Amino acid sequence: MGPRGRGLGKPTLTVFRCAVCGEKQRDDQPINLESTCWKCHADLHTCTHCRHFDSSAPGECRRAAPDYVASKAKQNICGLFEPKAAQEVDETANFDKPSDAKTAFDALFKF
Known about the structure:
This protein is largely without helices or strands. It has one domain. The protein has one helix at residues 101-108, and strands at 12-16, 85-89. The chain has a two-stranded antiparallel sheet with strand order 1-2. The radius of gyration is 19 Å and the shape is elongated. The model has no long low-confidence stretch (mean pLDDT 84).
């Protein structure tokens, strides 16, 4: 067992998760108007799944949406929709762990 961190320096991947159940969605299927979560069957083309959704912004959108959407968790036809992607540590990637604390510390400042 070497020193542990929070994933600093580990390979990452971009994922799209359902805002209702948190399940990772399949990469091979684009998000369109009829898309639903494969696990909980929630609509995915919604404001809560959009990268512009912000509950503190006017109209709960960081962009000037052409039409106000009353229900943010229901399917809508907003043309500004972009899936909310997140960076996560790729647990399947091969990553060499430092064997001691000094090596781990030095790896932080390697140029």
